[in-house]
Design a protein that fits this description.
The protein has 64 residues and is an alpha+beta fold. The strands form 2 sheets. Strands 1-4 form a two-stranded antiparallel sheet. Strand 2 and strand 3 form a beta hairpin.
Length: 64
């Protein structure tokens, strides 16, 4: 499993980027500002810290 970001809900807080213990997120610059992207999904350890940290519930863990 790995995180999937719903960009319709994401506000670019980068909380997921900050809390991930295996650093699988990267920060990407967009026209709306910075946002997190799942850069290394294979590194996910399914700890769900990113899911819990997201202030808008924009992240869920999905099957590979």
């Amino acid at each position: 499993m790995h995180p999937k970001i719903d960009y319709n809900k994401c506000v670019g807080s980068l909380e997921c980027y900050d809390v991930c213990p295996v650093e699988l997120f990267d920060a990407e610059e967009t026209e709306e500002g910075k946002r997190a992207v799942v850069a290394r999904p294979e590194d996910c350890i399914e700890c769900e810290q990113c899911v819990d940290a997201c202030p808008t519930d924009a992240i869920e863990l999905v099957e590979d």
